[in-house]
UniProtKB/TrEMBL annotation:
Keyword Transport: yes
GO biological process: protein secretion
NCBIfam families named in the record: secG
Originating species: Microbacterium oryzae
Name of this chain's protein: Protein-export membrane protein SecG
Amino acid sequence: MDVLEFILQVVLGITSLLLTLLILLHKGRGGGLSDMFGGGMSQAVGSSGLAERNLNYLTIILALVWFLAIVGLGLITKFQVI
């Protein structure tokens, strides 16, 4: 196994877990999983707009890293000489 392939697999695993957690932290728009984890309570209290924007920004950056890891692994797999 190539070192770059291993690094991309580790990055993909970590970003997958973090992306799942960040998506669950987002404020719900009515019902859904976010209410199960306390999203409904924070909606009643009123959440910070800055915190939500930062969470959106972090989620987008993490999703881009996740996407690039998948594309990188796909390219390595396609052009790998056996």
